[in-house]
Amino acid sequence: MQLRDERTWTLRDLLGLVGEPPTAAAPNKNADPDIEDSAAWYTQVQLPWPPSLVGNNWAFGGEGAYDMPKWLAPPASAALRRAIANARGGINPLLDWAPPIRAASQLKLTLEDRQQLPGAAKRLVKVTLRALPHFNGTPARDYVTLDVAGDGHDRTHFGRCVLFMKDNDDNHFVAVHWLTEVQGVVVDPVTMLVPLTLSRPELTASYSVMPASAIINGALIIEGGANLWALQSPREQRAYIASNYDN
Hints:
Elements: H1 2-17, H2 33-39, E1 52-53, E2 57-60, H3 74-88, E3 101-104, E4 106-112, E5 124-135, E6 138-141, E7 143-148, E8 155-166, E9 172-181, E10 194-198, E11 207-211, E12 215-224, E13 227-231, H4 234-243
Antiparallel strand pairs: 1-4, 2-3, 3-8, 4-5, 5-6, 7-8, 7-12, 8-9, 9-10, 9-11, 10-13, 12-13
């Protein structure tokens, strides 16, 4: 019995050192204070955080300029309104949401750290995405990678957050300003980075409203020369090449 207990505690300690959850739930903390202390070793498995608007939010109709973020230039604001109107039109609209709509410049949600194993304690990460000129003195118009349905297979695209929205059924959306791929170049052979350009802000096709569930992850984008460049982990780049091989 003593040998079995020693092995059990040794296994729990080893799992705790590498950040893995214990093999069994800890007993009631009131039963044994020592067991409660030992549980501090272990990283709690993160539960999904339902998407939610953060900070000030407002009624959004998508028709008047007053609905758009104040920092958005008038040509860009008009282009985004046209993009929403186009997506809402027709018998089978691409953008099918349930009014009334609320809008905000920040969205809290759960994203997957795909460098962690499925089921790992740190696999799910709570993040707040922002579409603000500045936040605490730092530029805060976040970039994201999105999974977009295409002809034959899904593709990964990059976009810059413009606005976040929620409909009456608690579905969440993100309005993005698309980054355009350099035709024929998936990954630059010299820099080994993904070259991109920001689509023209006055064009309707430069914007889309996507479900928040399409967001794969945030994106680290830097400026360099005439292009923007996406910095990716080796795993992210392999996945990007696999989905965008026909660029």
